[in-house]
Amino acid sequence: MKSFDPMNSGGDSDFERELLGMELRRPPAEWKALLLPKPVPPLFTKPFLLGLAACWAASAAIYFSTPETELPGPPVLLPPQNLPEIRDNVLAYQPENI
């Protein structure tokens, strides 16, 4: 590899060949803990995300499988028949049992 440094005439080629011929050494195992940051655990674990997805799928299935029909009969709670009839004003009504 040719050197592009104008101050150097290119006599580094022997040194570069010597460096390329050297075997790379790996750092010891205890250096790895010092050099690399500790891994951060994920915010949500895989079982939690799978359970959440199952709940959403069940909710969607229930929502889309229930029919949207109105009851074609009378109202469920009918007013009692024995109440006095309220004529003009609801605020003017006073019950007799006060």
TrEMBL record:
Task: Kindly provide the name given to this protein in its UniProt entry.
Answer: Uncharacterized protein
Which species is this record about? Luteolibacter rhizosphaerae
